[in-house]
Structures are given as structure tokens and as C-alpha cells.
Amino acid sequence: MSPVIIARNLHYKYEDGTVALAGVDFDLFPGETVAVFGGNGSGKTTFVLHLNGLLDGQGTIEVCGLPVKSETLKQVRQKIGIVFQDPDDQLFMPSVLEDVAFGPLNLGTPPDQAVERARIALDQVGMLEHQHKAPYHLSAGEKKRVAIAGVLAMDPEVLVLDEPTTFLDPPGQRSLTVLLRGLPQSKLIVTHDVEFARSLSKRAVFFEKGRIAGDGPTDRIIEQFRWIGL
Amino acid sequence: MHHVVLERWSRGTSLLHRRDARVKILSLLIFLIAVATTHRDFELPGLLYFAVLVGGMIAARLPVIGMLRRAAIVLPFSLTLAAITWISGEPRRAAMVVEKSFLSASAALLLVATTPLPQLLRGLEMLGTPRFLLMVAQFVYRYLFVIAEQAHRMRLAALCRGGRFRPKGGFRSAAGTLGVLFARSYERADRIHRSMISRGFEGHFNLLSRPSLVWADAGFLFLTAALVAVIRV
Fold first, then answer.
1. Residues 6 or more apart from B125 whose CB is under 8 A from it?
2. Cα–Cα distance for residue pair B59/A227, rounded to 1 Å
3. Does the CB of B140 have a partner CB in chain A at under 8 Å?
4. To the nearest whole number, what is the mean pLDDT of chain B?
5. Are the CB atoms for A25 and A213 separated by under 8 Å?
6. Looking at the predicted structure, is the pLDDT value of residue A67 above 90?
7. Which residues have CB under 8 Å from B29's CB, separation 6+?
8. Least confident residue range of A70-79, A161-170, A193-202, B170-179
9. N or C: which end of chain A has fewer CB within 10 A?
């Protein structure tokens, strides 16, 4: 089985000269869930932003067999769904249904089908009954679910979640874990939450100074880099 | 916050709430033009316009006093203008300025309190309002809550560190807070844009549905126009 994400020798430097990525090689295989650990400023988010062409560094990336370049961005962004850390950055439409249908409409899906896809995605995350609510009336956990539905409605093959447990209380984290476990897509989860990562992924990578310093079973990576609090 | 109450009011189910947004916008326009162009003997027409508005509020099952209190927000501005007119020797005109501005604000409020924002924006769009302006309005409305919460958190943090919000020196701290809020809002705008692009946004908003007019909408528009025309004459 060929990987759904192939990144080779990825380099990126910010305008102020900060080196964010210094040669990243990474593969994600179909159906696999990988946790991404690393300290603040280690390059995790910069790496994620390269996956759908939001940042354009040196090196090559392939998503589901498509090279990430300006001509393929529309297809790439359908194949890979990114759920950002703060759901308030993602939910900007006046109602939940309109927000979830935003992606399918952008892909050229006719409005009635876009609504249908949005409703299916909302049902998948258990938020169908809130479809007519305004996003700011939702709790943090509900917002996160709607943000995930917004990405699922585009029918992606890969899900990338940036710090998904931020803003969530323990019950919210638990229900997110159950939700993510039930989704069939390959997943890349950027997180600081060791227990959350343990419960979802068998494999983890560790970012350090813009490189992947460790790649292997989640428990071993946690042990190797002493990635645990207290 | 005011817009939370308005939001709740706008989600009602009365006959007025169920009318198409375009028809309500056009009715408001007709009302405003009529009020603005009624010049002589404004006492009786003014009262009748007011009665129409109060009738609309009752029909929409809205709290009349609460609505009028909110419409009064326009008074400080119009009273200033009225005072200048009064001083320049036109007391009747000064009174008319206050009456007309209050009636106009109440009418606009009635529209907002009976039309959920998404429908209102869609109605405006279908009547030809530039999309860019509507997008700005939509984003301002959506992120007002988020920015207000951020400002509240910053205020709490300042208070925790012994900061005091007093008139003396208040402008200085307010300016600092505004500066930080602006920078944070700018960063947030960047993140929102990224998330929009990630979901295939290419600079054009696609509509989910186009509402269609029914006979009751046409009847409502005709009734408003006729009523206002009778008062105006």
C-alpha cells in the first residue's frame, strides 16, 4: 500500500530568518493514525501547513498520489482536511449547516447536494440537531465537532488535527476520542496530550528543531523523549 | 449585549418574522422615504407613523417598551443636531429632527428584530447590495462576540495585576488595549483566511439556497406602501 502522505526533504524558513523546517521526511499510510509531538516552535504546525499548500517550502510533498503544487491545490485540499486548533477560526458562517456546507459548495457541489453532505457529516459527529444554530451559541466541544464536520463534508481521505483537545474539558476530550476512533480516514494528530495520543495512535513522531527526531511506537517515543508532565 | 437580545427576537415565528427579507427591506425603505419627505404638520403623521410601528411590534410579539428603549440609542446624536437647529431659531424643525430620527431608528430596529441576520444579508444581497460589504458585515457580527470576550479577558488580566480603569489615564490604557486587540484580531483574520482556503475558498461565497416570494409577501409590501402613502398624503 502506497502512503497517503509522502514528504521528502522539506525545508522552510520564515521571513525573519527563523528556520522552521530543516529537512523533514515523513510517510503516512492508509488507515493509519500518527501522533505528532514536539515542543513549541519545533515545526509541527509549519509542517501541517505545508500539507495542503498553505505554506510552500523547499522539498516535495505528495497527498494521495497528487504532488502538492499550485495546479493541484484544489484536489489536494479536498483530499486532506485540516481541523485547526481554535474552532472559532473555522466557524464563521451564520449557521452551523451553512458552515459545514461551505466546503462542498466551494468544491462545486450543487446546493441541494451540499446540504445533504453537510447533514450527513453533522450526523456523523452527532451535531445534526444543532444544524440551525449560530456557531457562537455552541460549547467548545460542540464547536470542535462542527469544525470536524466541516472538514468531513468534503469527503477527505486524510484528516489532520492541530491540537484537537485544546479548550476541551475531560468529557469533551473523551467524546472526541470516541468520535475520532470511529472515523475511517488516515489521521495525523498534532498534540501535547500524551494520554489522548496513546488512546488513538500506535505510531508517533517527535519534532525537534524543524526535524523529525524520532519515529516509532507511541509509547517508545514518549519514553525516549521523556514527553510526559509532572 | 444588545445583539444577543436582537438575535433572540429575530428568531420568532410571527407573521412578520415569516415575511421574506427582501419585502421587509423594501417596506423599510418606503417607510424611511415617507418619513423623511413628510414636511409640513408632522404632528399627526408622526403619531400615525409611530402607531404603525407599534402595531408592527405588537404583531411581531416583540416587547414594545424594550424596542423603543433600544431605538432611543439614536437620540443623543439627533438631540445634538436638534439643539443646533433650535439655537438657530427653528424650534419646530428641531422637534421634527428628533421625531424623524427616532421613527427611523425604530423602523430599522423592527426589521432587524424580525429578520435573522443570515436572511437579512441574503435579502440585501438579492436586492443588489455589493457582496463585499455584506461579507464585512457578516464577519463583524460573527466575531464581535469573540473579540468582546478577548477584551473582557484582557481587562480581567489587567485588574488582576492591579490595573485600574479610571477616567484619569483611562485613555492611555484604552489605547493600549485597543492596540493589542487590533493586533490579535489581525492574527485571527489570518487564521480564519487560512481555514477558509483549506476548505477550497477561492474568493467567492456560494449561496446555499435562494428563497422565493409568496403571495403573502407581495400583500405585506402592498399593505405597508398603501398605509404609509395614506399617512403621507
1. B131, B134, B207
2. 63
3. no
4. 86
5. no
6. yes
7. none
8. B170-179
9. C
Length of chain A in residues, anyone?
230
The residue whose grid cell reads 470576550 is B149
As a residue count, chain B comes to 233
What's the whole-number mean pLDDT along residues B194-216? 81
| Nearest residue of chain B to residue A98 (CA atoms) | B208
Q: Tell me the chain A residues in contact with residue B11 when contact means C-beta distances shorter than 8 Å.
A: none
pLDDT in tens, B179-204: 888 888 888 888 888 999 999 888 77
Shortest distance, CA B228 to any CA of chain A (angstroms): 33
With 0-12 / 13-18 / 19 or more C-beta atoms within 10 angstroms meaning exposed / middle / buried, residue A57 is: middle
* CATH, domain range A5-224: 3.40.50.300
Domain residue extents for chain A: 5-224
Looking up cell 468534503 gives A154
Q: What is the pLDDT of residue A80?
A: 95
> How high does pLDDT run on average in chain A?
92
Q: How close is the nearest chain A Cα to the Cα of B38, in Å?
A: 38
How does strand A186-190 pair with strand A203-208? unpaired
Instruction: Please write the tens of the pLDDT for every residue from B79-124.
Output: 999 999 899 888 888 999 999 999 999 999 999 999 988 788 888 9
